[in-house]
Design brief:
- The protein is mostly helical.
- 52% of the residues lie in helices and 7% in strands.
- The protein has one domain.
- It has a two-stranded antiparallel ribbon with strand order 1-4. A two-stranded antiparallel ribbon has the order 2-3.
- α1 packs across α2.
Length: 151
């Protein structure tokens, strides 16, 4: 299993420079769709429901203060298995065309983030976790619907 730094390195290698916020959302969607397609997590690090959408705190601590990221020296993109690469490639192909704000807005309309932030104000800080169970359940339902972009 890859770790979140390996996934970040792979995304940047495949998609090129992007904002830290966009990288966070692509990492989130990579985890979500890997849970659906491979029925196991892509990485073990937790994802929190922050005001601007899902965030992996381990990544945030490394890119804090940076806007544009061009590479991820803390990760090794070659550690991803072919199945893991396939998941991330699918996510980058489907979601990579969207801006960081569009991806943030999308996560705000989806149940895993909404449920994790239940009772919080729109800009209220939170360290609440988005559970992998909630992600797998929600995105599995999306995959089985006719609205799925990735399937």
């Amino acid at each position: 299993m890859a770790n979140v730094n390996d996934v970040a390195a792979y995304i940047l290698r495949q998609a090129g420079p992007m904002s830290a916020m966009k990288l966070q959302k692509l990492v989130y969607y990579s985890q979500a769709w890997h849970l659906v397609w491979d029925e196991r997590p892509l990485f073990d690090q937790p994802i929190e429901a922050w005001a601007n959408g899902p965030v992996v705190p381990d990544l945030y601590r490394r890119h804090q203060g940076q806007y544009t990221l061009t590479n991820w020296p803390d990760g090794n993109s070659t550690r991803l298995s072919p199945s893991e690469q396939e998941t991330v490639d699918g996510v980058v192909n489907a979601y990579g065309k969207y801006s960081a704000q569009q991806l943030s807005d999308l996560t705000h309309r989806e149940q895993p983030w909404i449920a994790a932030r239940a009772g919080l104000g729109p800009t209220e800080r939170s360290r609440r976790l988005i559970s992998t169970d909630a992600m797998q359940e929600y995105y599995s339902a999306v995959a089985s619907s006719s609205e799925a972009d990735l399937v």
